[in-house]
């Protein structure tokens, strides 16, 4: 069933750190009015990279997560800087976080984090044909790089330190994309 988008009767915005809090006054097709709040990114987007040294292996990073106050495993990721394309951002983040570049980058799709209250999306990028190349990063300490076989995703999903939903979803998408012969997104 397709519904018309709610009518926007008003908006107010307030800066909150790296985000902007937006209050939106909406009217739905049934006449109900509600006021919602959402976080809007002030940036230019972000990238998450599934770096494949070979078709069976992905490179993960272990880094400190302030939100959970523990070290987490996940895919390399970072913001797209002003003036950068997603390809340039993915290449830079790979060099900073895992010490590799890639001759082939494929954007699979955008992933949202919490679409009911955040506008943020991250571009899922597959990196293949890797080569060593390191840039200094902005992390406070070196990241540990951990190769993980894609046929062992079932083990990774059960690890307490691998909890980020975007990384979990991304690895299943990548595994399916590889299994189907790398179709064009």
What would a concise description of this structure say?
With 185 residues, this protein is an alpha+beta fold. It is built from three helices and ten strands, in the order βββββββαβββαα. The strands form three sheets. Strands 7-4-9-8 form a four-stranded mixed sheet.
Main features:
four-stranded mixed beta sheet, 3 helices, globular, alpha+beta, 185 residues
Describe the structure.
The protein is α+β, with helices and mostly antiparallel strands and 185 residues long. The chain is built from 3 helices and 10 strands. It has a 4-stranded mixed beta sheet. A 3-stranded antiparallel beta sheet has the order 1-2-3, with no helix packed on it. It is globular, with a radius of gyration of 19 Å. The mean pLDDT is 93.
Round the Cα radius of gyration to an integer and report it.
Answer: 19 Å
The N- and C-terminal alpha carbons lie at a distance of: 25 Å
What proportion of the residues is helical, as a percent range?
Answer: 10-25%
Per DSSP, what share of the residues sits in E-state strands of 2 or more residues? 35-45%
Shape estimate? globular
Number of strands: 10
**Number of discrete helical segments:** 3
What structural class do the secondary elements suggest? alpha+beta
Average pLDDT, to the nearest integer?
A: 93
In what order do the strands lie side by side in the largest sheet? 7-4-9-8
- Report the biggest beta sheet as strand number plus sense, adding barrel if it closes: 4 strands, mixed
Order of helices and strands: EEEEEEEHEEEHH
